[in-house]
Amino acid sequence: MTCTMDELILKLKKEIIDVLNLEDITPEDITDDAPLFGEGLGLDSIDALELIVLMEKNYGIKLKDPSQGRELFRSIRVMADYIQANRTK
Amino acid sequence: MRPLYVSRTACITRQSVSVNGKELPVSSGDGRFLAAVYRTLGIDYPKFFKMDNLSKLGFLASELLLREDRPRFVPREDCAVICFNRSASLDADTLYQATIGPGEDYFPSPSLFVYTLPNIVTAEIAIRNKLYGETSFYICEAFSAHQLFTTVSHAFADSSIRSALAGWTEYGNEVCEAFLMQIETFPPPETALPFSVEFLTRIKNKL
Amino acid sequence: MGKSSFLRRMEEKNGLAMIVWAGDNIISSLGFTTEENYRAVWSGQSGIRLCDAYRGIPEPFYASQIDRKQLGDRFAALGKRPAGYTPLEQAAILSVAQAADQARTDLSAPDVVFILSTTKGNVHLLDEGERADSPRLYLWHTARLIADYFHNANEPVVVSNACISGACAQIAAMRALASGDYTYAVVIGVDMLSRFIISGFQSLKALAPAPCRPFDAGRQGLNLGEAASTLIYRRAAGEEHPHTVSLVQGAIRNDANHISGPSRTGEGCYLAIRASLEACAADDLAFVCAHGTATAYNDRMEAIALTRAGLNRTPVNSLKGYFGHTLGAAGVLESIISIHALTDETALPTCGFRQGETDYPLHIAERRLRTEKPYCLKILSGFGGCNASLLFKKQKKTDETIVC
Q1: Direct distance between the N- and C-terminal alpha carbons of chain C, in angstroms, rounded to an integer
Q2: Which 109-128 residues of chain B touch chain C by CB within 8 A?
Q3: Alpha carbon distance A89, A86 (integer Å)
Q4: Rounded CA gap, C359 and C404, in Å?
Q5: Same domain, C230 and C332
Q6: Does pLDDT of B122 surpass 60?
Q7: Do C148 and C263 share a domain, yes or no?
Q8: ipTM beyond 0.85?
């Protein structure tokens, strides 16, 4: 459960690639501070909902309001920071 | 009713991939058959990998039909997409069902759930090709030449429809088979065949 | 005006024909007959209730459900053992049996075709451990079982086109009858709740934490509902002029935009409306019965499409506040209620609606409105960006029309 920020970021990238079926994308292709939505990875609203499930399933974090996701999924780093501070598993 | 013609056909089974009866060699890389067909066709459409198997199958069949069109992706309202199969979205259903296990195993997946409708394959084809016409999905116990013929012919009674991508797209229980046709109203080039129950019966025997 | 290009083209081939109402039935949380359901809606009752602890689903939700005990009892009264049939099959068969009584038709005749509209059929069986190759899980099997019950040997048609299935099934009926292939079409719309469906809609964050409020500025999402409904259509010779309601036009169009999100311009919905309005002037519409699921995106999309089609002054209602969203049954159920409202010279109110939005204002029916106009339009939209419209017309002599 304890891991460094860099380890968590790498783990998270792998999980996102896996759960969102981002074929042909490697963890190196995802910049830590780049926006996850909009341009770039081409994610949509269903992907955002799937990330909410990922937060709960892998880290025990239940988002009360789906609109919270918009703030959290700004970048991998924002997500990782939130997970580090709030994870229950 | 105006006569209808089949201008192009595409067929995908695990044994072979063909366009207008001509076989296309597919080199299966890592064992994922549909991904291998995608690579063989040289398509660049990352959304493909988010689709369920049924949508991937139908999408690839439609690409086989349309990939040489120039220009491509011209928006049109006069083209319908009508598919048929036996098991609806049962393959996607069982994958989604696995995410709603009892107790601690309960993490319903939204991205799997959206594919638990068979007509999503018609939507994926419509989205890719900007087709605003009718999209419909029908279920039959088995490939029915009669039902396919009457249903598709009737769709042309809609005065806006002049063309259709129609056929059989089945995925599940070890079966992976797609047979898609481009059906048109205008006088055909030499290669086009009359769209008829007999034509579909011949196809059925080949599947 | 008054005849669609589709029917005109079919007439060239088969002679004059009208596709007319011959009988119907609704089974829902609000009753087991069309009359019970219509009266409940007329008097503003809703069948939507809080469901807590539904088969291990962690979050409570609001939904409308068919009374299982009554369903079993009424099904048993038909003379078959309920145990051999799933609740979905029981509801569908019971609904067809009642509609057939009204239509006074022998459904085993060779000129009768069964058309089933359902999104998920017996999907609840997956939850009960049914193997994926069990016939019970297949929609064609459900249709065959229903047709067999009524000794009908024709191959049933099964439409599974997400939430517009009920409209597609009626369009399929219209085409099958107009082409002269059959004289009667039995259109059945059915879907029941299950852990599968509820958890899925929850995962999409689409369910409202309260009874739904279609087209209201404060709407928070949809409620799911159960229903089985049957509409029997008959092919009548044009010269008969039956004093009833006919289905004059229907169209299906796609947004070609996104598999789950509605188009921001309401493209497919607008195109479907435009195709049906070929056969009638907007001024002749008594009302539009919208899809009106009460999700933020759907209702806004419909408001845009209706505005684009010039229907922003036509009375619009949504029936979701009474029944919830009954999925594959919705198109059939809501058409039946609309047909009866049309002959009743009434535009029914939208349960749950209080205040509309300001940017695409519509004339949402808030209370019952009297109207003698001869047409009504039913529209639906669903996942896969599909949209459908149906245009119904009542004949002039309303004193001899169907009673309700």
Answers
A1: 28
A2: 109-110, 113-114, 116-120, 122-124, 126-127
A3: 9
A4: 37
A5: no
A6: yes
A7: no
A8: yes
* List of domains in chain B: 5-206 (3.40.47.10)
- Among C238, C260, C292, which residue terminates a domain? C238
Pull the structure tokens for residue A28.
């190196």
Same domain, C143 and C41: yes
| C268 & C383 share domain | yes
* Helix ranges, B82-196 (H): 90-97, 110-113, 120-129, 145-155
Taken in order C182, C343, C74, C228, the sign of the CA dihedral is positive
Distance between CA atoms of residues B7 and A86, nearest Å:
59
Q: Are residues C50 and C188 in the same domain?
A: yes
Length of chain A equals 89
Nearest by Cα to C247 from C22, C399, C9: C22
- Closest-CA residue of chain B to A20: B50
**C228-283 pLDDT, tens digit each:** 999 999 999 866 655 689 999 999 999 999 999 989 999 999 999 999 999 999 99
Q: For the full predicted model, state whether its pTM sits above 0.90.
A: yes
Encoded amino acid at C215, one letter: F
pLDDT category of residue C173 using cuts at 50, 70 and 90: very high
pLDDT tens profile C184-208: 999 999 999 999 999 999 999 999 9
Beta carbons of A45 and C261 less than 8 Å apart: yes
User: Which residue among A23, A50, A56 places its CB closest to the CB of B46?
Assistant: A23
* One-character DSSP codes across C340-371: HHHHTTEEPP-TT-----SSS--EE--S-EE-
End position of a domain, from candidates C238, C269, C294: C238
Fold of A5-86: 1.10.1200
Say how many Å lie between the first and final Cα of chain B, rounded: 29
Number of domains chain C is built from? 2
CA distance C108 to C213: 42
The contacts of residue C84 (CB under 8 Å, 6+ apart) are none
Using CA coordinates, name the residue in chain A closest to B110: A50
pLDDT in tens, C316-336: 999 999 999 999 999 999 999
Partners for C (CB, 8 Å, 3+ pairs)?
Answer: A, B
- Average per-residue pLDDT for chain B: 94
Structural domain boundaries enclosing C275? 244-400
Q: Please check whether residues C351 and C257 belong to one and the same domain.
A: yes
C113 and C49 in a single domain? The answer is yes
Cα separation of B164 and A5, whole Å? 53
- State yes or no: cis peptide before B71, omega within 30 of 0: yes
B47 reaches A (C-beta below 8 A): yes
**Do C176 and C117 sit in the same domain of this protein?**
yes
Q: The CATH number of the domain where C323 resides is what?
A: 3.40.47.10
Is the Cβ pair C205, A45 closer than 8 Å? Answer: no
What's the token pair of residue C21?
């109402």
